[in-house]
Amino acid sequence: MSEAVLPPARVALVGNPNSGKTALFNALTGSRQKVANYAGVTVERKEGQVVTPGGRTLSILDLPGTYSLRARSPDEAVTRDAVLGRLAGEQIPDVLVCVADATNLRLVLRLILELKQVGRPMVLALNMYDIAQRQGLRIDLEGLARELDCPIVTTVATRKRGIAELVAKVDELAAAGALASDGGWAAPDAGQIRQAHREAQRILKAYVRPPERPDTFTGKVDGVLLHPVGGLVILFALLFLMFQGVFTWAGPPADLIEQAMTALGSLIGQALPDGLLKSFLVDGVISGVGSVLVFLPQILILFFFIILLEDFGYMARAAFLMDRIMGGAGLHGRAFIPLLSSFACAIPGIMATRVIDNKRDRLTTILVAPLMTCSARIPVYTLIIAGFIPDTTVWGFLSLQGLVMFGLYAAGIAGALLVSLVIRKIFWRGAVEPFLMELPAYKAPDAENVTRNLLLRAKIFLTRAGTIIFPLMIAVWVLSTFPYPPPGATRPAIDYSFAGMLGHVFQPLLAPIGFNWQMTVALVPGFAAREVAVAALGTVYAIADTGTNGATLATTLAQHWSLATGLSFLAWYVFAPQCASTIGVVRRETNSWLWPMIMLGYMTALAYLAAFVTYQAARALGG
Amino acid sequence: MNDVFAPPRDPDGLTSAEGVLAPLSTLHVGDRGVIVDVRAEARADDHGVGVEELQRRLLEFGFVEGARVEVLHEGAIRRDPIAVKLDDMRVALRRRDAVDVLVLLDRP
Question: Least CA distance to A187: which residue of chain B?
Answer without folding.
Answer: B56
